[in-house]
Amino acid sequence: MAFRKRRALQSAYIRNSFSSCWFYHNSIIMSGYNGAKENFHSKARTSPYPGSQVERSQVPNEKVGWLVEWQDYSPVEYTAQSVLAGPKWADPQISESNFFPKFNEKDGRVERKSQNGLYEIENGRPRNPAGRTGLVGRGLLGRWGPNHAADPIITRWKRDESGNKITHPVSGKSILQFVAIKRKDCGEWAIPGGMVDPGEKISATLKREFGEEALNSKQKSSAEKRKMEKQLQKLFSEEHLVIYKGYVDDPRNTDNAWMETEAVNYHDETGEIMDNITLEAGDDAGRVKWVDISDKLKLYASHSQFIKLVAEKRDAHWSEDSGPGCHGL
Q1: Dist CA 130 CA 41 (whole Å)
Q2: Nearest of 148, 81, 78 to residue 111 by alpha carbon
Q3: Is the pTM of this model over 0.85?
Q4: 218 in helix, strand or coil?
Q5: What pLDDT is stored for residue 152 in this prediction?
């Protein structure tokens, strides 16, 4: 018994150590690391909290990690009224007597597993594996623990009137475009993604969200929906690239609730599929358009980093700076 207990403790230590290293490494990547730690887990510490006047407790860079002792840490408690109202996409409060969430596992139709491994539970609440945010509760997020999203990145090559690919005059690489929406809630441009419904497959979420956000599918007639579905099936059955899976440094994150996503690139190599689909903003989108991909992009949350990864995978233009990049992290 003692031996098995010791092995279990060793395994837990290895898991937690690996998880800490993973989050440090990937948070650097997702924050646009430039040789300093100032950006580590940064958007999850911004104030005021989105959609409110709530100011987070300030968390200095050196005290983000839970392994750093901080006895005086006093985060603000906040959960938005829209969440407390009990919509179907939200959990009850932890204190409710009939709420027994199964953290770190599939809980009925709700996925409470993290894409980055096990997360800790403290005083009945899940703890953000990337560190302190200065705020406890759920903020605008419905689920305690991971809140799963899917981000479809739809791309094509920028072409001239003759149909030839357009190359950037400095980098000499072909210019890639992606479908971007302007979010109604914050006015920032973003990938047209959204939350995974309980029991829904990621592939279904990716297609559904793109249809709702970028094609206004909810407002289409039955005939229009059938035609659109046929075109989308062509696009989403193409070979695709999983660009990123895991934790997202998002301004809605708290100590007890956080965003995770799966960003997937569907590429229309010839442009013929998307030529037959009319972009139209819908659902949470104010506007929608094709955007040239480059390092000049300023996008919501960690979306610029997702787009950069797509450009690298497709060997497309990203930056006019031809100097050596930062490798070997």
Answers
A1: 7
A2: 148
A3: no
A4: helix
A5: 93
